[in-house]
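Attaching the record inline, Q. Sequence:
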Amino acid sequence: ELLQYLGKQLENKNLIHSNFIDSVKEREYHASTAYGNLVAIPHPLMPLAKQTFIYIITMDKPIAWEDKEVQIIFCLGLKKNTTINLEKVYQNLSEIINDYSKVLKLLEADSKESFKKIFSP
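Structure, as predicted:
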């Protein structure tokens, strides 16, 4: 259900091609993108975004995602042949996955601005 909701949000913002969510589901079939510490980073098998983005969803309560609980989702969409350097983004996501206290701070953020400050200090 969450992936369907995510797909609708991304379509409404004209960020993805029509097969994006199908590819995300296929990726999940091969290996879960729930990494622990309440974090999931769903993404397609290949670049299927109209532009590169991270779409973030936080939930009031965790949901079951395969064998883990997830409360914050970072959907990663890459545009084919993107020229954006994503090293800093990947580094921030890696730090979040490995730092439960940072996850909790993100979940407690009361505005987009405070979330951004925590996400990329």
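The longest helix spans residues 87-98. The helical segments are 2-12, 20-30, 87-98, 100-108, 112-119.

More tomorrow.
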